[in-house]
Amino acid sequence: MITVMGAGAFGTALAVSLSRNGPVRLWAHDARHVEAMQRTGQNERRLPGVPLPTNITFCAGLETFSSEDTVLLAVPMQRLRGVLEGHRGVLSQARLVACCKGMELSTGKGPVQIVQEICHAATPAILTGPSFAADIAKGLPTALTLACADVRAGEALQQALTTPNLRIYRTSDTIGAELGGALKNVMAIGAGVVMGAALGDSARAALMTRGFAEMTRMAVALGAEPETLAGLSGFGDLVLTCTSEQSRNYRFGLSLGRNEAFDPSVTVEGAATARAVHEKAQALGLEMPITTAITGLISGELQVDQAMDMLLSRPLKEE
Ligand SMILES: NC(=O)c1ccc[n+]([C@@H]2O[C@H](COP(=O)([O-])OP(=O)(O)OC[C@H]3O[C@@H](n4cnc5c(N)ncnc54)[C@H](O)[C@@H]3O)[C@@H](O)[C@H]2O)c1
Ligand SMILES: O=P(O)(O)OC[C@H](O)CO
After folding, report:
1. Which of 34, 56, 186, 242 is the most buried (most CB within 10 A)?
2. How far apart are CA 67 and CA 214, in angstroms?
3. Closest ligand 1 atom to the C-alpha of 134?
4. Dist CA 130 CA 144 (whole Å)
């Protein structure tokens, strides 16, 4: 059986899609949220308007969990460690598929690394790539990357998670897959700033292209294959998130560029991840000027015109 931990927009959308293959268990950390979904047949908090199929069952505990189960971890990045530590006993031998995108602020680690650290005997994997929860829930065609270092386990997960509308590609490069998803959110905030501040489509294209160069530079320095960054989990998700107002990271950037307030209850993974990436780049001695500028904009240490001056006045170089 598949268990999805995290009844946010993405976990709920995945549960809806996977319920076409068989029964799915959807876990939420808040018992009142479980009760509300049972009562209304919807996740009104995070994915309103989507009827939840009857073969999704809801729970706030994992009493009926079997070690044969596959678990999708669809919680926000900065909550992943706490969720795993709270369920270390039951999850210790399971196939654990991280579905979050980001870098932990306190350690600079990605989701697969955190799963490995806490559940040593589990099979860690990551599901990532260009996909909005609302699109998946509507059954629109979507392609994702499943990364798992254990090739046989990866093949089994690829089969189990494919649905008529969800096409899963596979790789064993977990480092590249997790970094692509983390880093593209930072660039999406930057793209939003560019558009919010009316700097133009050309400036956004420049940010996306040079941002992709930064993403690849860091990922390769940390052991990723450049081909992974060029795939769905990197380039694909960068394009989606830097160009669509469905993206919360992009919308957050738009509000920064317009000098407007942004609802703090909305999950914006790129905000904490930008700081974590900036610190890691400094520690590794990597040049990542766009990331530095975006980190400064988020913290309020830089204004848009200062960030632009900083980027445009850098010494000229070869591409
Ligand atoms: N929404 C999307 O379109 C989408 C698509 C792909 C990937 N993702 C990724 O999925 C992850 C989750 O995002 P989302 O969109 O589902 O978020 P969301 O904002 O819709 O929901 C977050 C959920 O996390 C829960 N939560 C908060 N604190 C928690 C805790 N301490 N323990 C357990 N659960 C807690 C909240 O109750 C909420 O249900 C993110 O890393 C995101 O990047 C999202
Ligand atoms: O809404 P965002 O910005 O978190 O983006 C959602 C997904 O990561 C897009 O692939």
Report:
1. 186
2. 40
3. 3
4. 7
Same fold, 2-172 and 182-312: no
Most ligand 2 atoms within 8 A of CB, residue of 78, 237, 239, 254 to mutate = 237
Ligand 1 site: residues with CB under 6 angstroms?
Answer: 6-11, 29-30, 46, 74-77, 79, 82-83, 99-102, 131-133, 267, 269
Provide the ipTM. Answer: 0.98
Report residues whose beta carbon is within 6 angstroms of any ligand 2 atom. Answer: 101, 130-132, 185, 188, 237, 240-241, 247-249, 269
Residue 7 is assigned to a ligand binding site: yes
User: Is 237 marked as a binding-site residue?
Assistant: yes
Q: Rounded to an integer, what is the distance from CA 173 to the centroid of its chain?
A: 16
Ligand 1 nearest atom to the CA of residue 185, by list position: 43
Nearest CA to ligand 1 atom 21: 8
Token representation of residue 116:
């490995």
- As a whole number of angstroms, the distance between CA 212 and CA 93 comes to 36
Name the residues annotated as catalytic: 184
One pLDDT digit (tens) per residue for the chain, 319 residues? 999 999 999 999 999 999 999 999 999 999 999 999 999 999 999 999 999 999 999 999 888 778 778 999 999 999 999 999 999 999 998 999 999 999 999 999 999 999 999 999 999 999 999 999 999 999 999 999 999 999 999 999 999 999 999 999 999 999 999 999 999 999 999 999 999 999 999 999 999 999 999 999 999 999 999 999 999 999 999 999 999 999 999 999 999 999 999 999 999 999 999 999 999 999 999 999 999 999 999 999 999 999 999 999 999 999 9
Helix axes 269-284, 201-221, angle to 10 degrees: 50
Whether the CB-CB separation of 299 and 307 falls below 8 Å is answered with no
The domains of the chain are located at 2-172, 182-312
* Nearest alpha carbon to residue 305 among 274, 259, 242: 259
Q: CATH homologous superfamily of domain 182-312?
A: N-(1-d-carboxylethyl)-l-norvaline Dehydrogenase; domain 2 (1.10.1040.10)
